[in-house]
Amino acid sequence: MSKLLTIALKDLRIAFSDTSALILMLATPFAISLAITFAFGGLGSQGGSGIEEIPVTLVNQDDGLFGELLVETFQSPELADLFAPEMLSSPQEARQRVDADESAAAVIIPAGFSDAVFQELTAGEASAEVEIYANPTRPISVSVVRSITGSVLGRINASYAAGHAAVEGLIASGLLDPQQAGEVAPQIGQRAGEQVFNARGIRVERVQVAGQREEASEFNWAGYFAPSMAIMFLMFTVTSGARTLLAERDNGTLQRIFAAPTRPWQMIGGKVLGTFLIGVLQMTILALATRFLLGVRWGPPEAVAALITAVVFAATGWGVLLAAYARSAGQVEVAGTVISLVFGAAAGNFVPRFNLPAWLQQASYISPNAWGLEGFNSLASGGALVDILPAIQALVIMGAVLFALSLLAYRRQMV
Amino acid sequence: MKVLTIALNDLKMEFSERTTLVFFLLIPLAFTFAIAQGLGGSGGSSGGPDLYPVAVVDEDGSMLAEQVIQALQKTPDLQAALLSADQAAAALEDGEALAVLTLPAGFGEALAKGQDVPVRLERASDELEARAAAQAVENGLARVDSAVQAALAAVNERRRFQDFPDAEAEQAFFDDRLDAALRTLQNPPASLRMTQSESAAGSADEIDAATQASSGQLVTWTLFTLLGVSDMFVGERLLGTLRRLIASPTRPSTVLLGKLVGRLAMGWTQMAILILFGGLVLGVNWGRSPLALLVVAVSFSLAAVAFGVMIGAFAKTRGQAGGLTTLCALLLAALGGAWWPLEITPQVYQALVKALPTTWAMFGFNEVILRGADVRAVLPEAGMMLVFAALFFIISIPRLRFA
Q: What's the pTM value of the predicted model, to 2 decimals?
């Protein structure tokens, strides 16, 4: 047993004194987490998307109420953080601002826009169309501008529908002479429209399946990507550990050790234990560094520790399986990198997991990445040890099955 | 001539290893495909189901609640089933319903008075389909809400002229006006038209996820290849082959140039394959000007290979060179906007990352691909990348050791 530990600790020491290994194990995942925190949350905060002060150009050629309403909405104090609006008088100039990438979109309200809406009440012919001239290099900002414009137009249309329903209803009831409708319809329409405008109406409270209000758990980029990067680079570590096993066989050092009074199981067990310990230490350092330097919330320490152990156990299982069936250290290196990247991409280490197609999310449960990521996400959003027990169970079973499959081929491979 | 011989020799050696093909070709293609798929839903260009199955729970039982439900059931992209709370919870759990809308007790009364009417909308998961279903319910509700308010306003106007003879007549009038308002809102007068520059790719109406993903993946993976020149420099230096080459009647500048040309040829080949894959398989529109695309790609590759030489000049071992290549490739790509659009990052971030060549590469590719820019329009971006290339060469070449 002491020989097994000696071998494991020796590998641990070698890994943590090798600069290039440290770059891959710790510096790279930490640096990417740092970049993501910087990009999306601001250092030390748990913020969500950094979208703010979208430059939007407004051109209001309408002299009626609705054009003014649209402009006021973009200039309102409630949206002051979201938009940095500027007013121009020429649509041509506004389009040039967008083409020069100085604006995300130009909202162009045509002359006679309000009249065109009102005219519908009596004539029912004219149409009022607001143009959004979009900057194709800023699709997300454009979609925000579009959504706000759409909601204002929705309110304008609701007002119109109210006026239309009232006038038409009065005519149908015989209370309003169609000949007189042209004179009184605008007043009726305006009154009905105002009532609709001032009604507070249906307000949707979005709830996730767990029951908590959605606003309380806005997507946290840094909280998602810190464990995500740690798991992905853990896979590189364990497959690299597996490579050293075969490299020692290929170099002949394994045979020399076997010639000494060391049993094969002690040697192989020591190297596997070493890989496991390196993985645990790597994940722990990354968790502590991102927690205390970047302010990433990981969750209750005992649950995080349990999940780290389970994830590393399953990941080591994959490494050991590779070493058991590969023909050379070079093969392990290539297959290890491929597996690490494919598992990472499929499980959501590069793009948020919930954005992936459902079939890919299901398929990715073959990887420790998917179970680990879901477990860490659960802990970061307030979960406890009991919530991640299914993930831990799955990871332990995965590791055990992989170790068992590896044992079948080990003797042929190593001796 | 010697330059070409050295370049061809390096290419032959690189491609004689099967592993090169895996990293050079298979992984980049797989990632470009997977990430285009992953972003597809969020961008809105991927198709969802024709009808989103959702459940509605009516805890109110009022006439108004019933009318809201009926109107929701007529909403084009929803398949709304009226269920009890227990049935709805089970349907949500079994995946038979993607979202559950609950109309609480007092819903009808509050709505009729124009008061704040909170309703609960629970979605099955964070997955795209469930989020799209919840959004479809919200859109449907907004239309129904507008129509109900319009019908209530019409009832009030009717009262101003003449009171209703009885409650039944009032209800009949309301029902009729609600139908009329719903019809009006199907083809409303005020509308929105999305436009964009004529030279821009695709439609202004939707985000093309594959196009968004392809340029980012191109930058990420060719960075690995181009920065990989560092490993070659360090490896050959340690093996002594560089020293032997210098000992032959070959000038160091010829050796350096040969190595750079070989690596650039690899990078350009990889770019060409990724561009063809994006265009033919993912339907990416790579812009209107192949020349502009070429100018951006070549200037980016020069900046990247120069960065690789810089790593090669500072790294002492192959392990260090490999580790630094991975670290720098991932970081430069992520920070420069290849993984996420810079528009969603804070202004200070956007200003700071202009100090990276990858940011200018992404600016350039986006100009060409998304805006349909011509060569003249991308000269500033290309110029910046060439400045970076010159800077990296100036820093690294005096420090390069051949022995």
A: 0.76
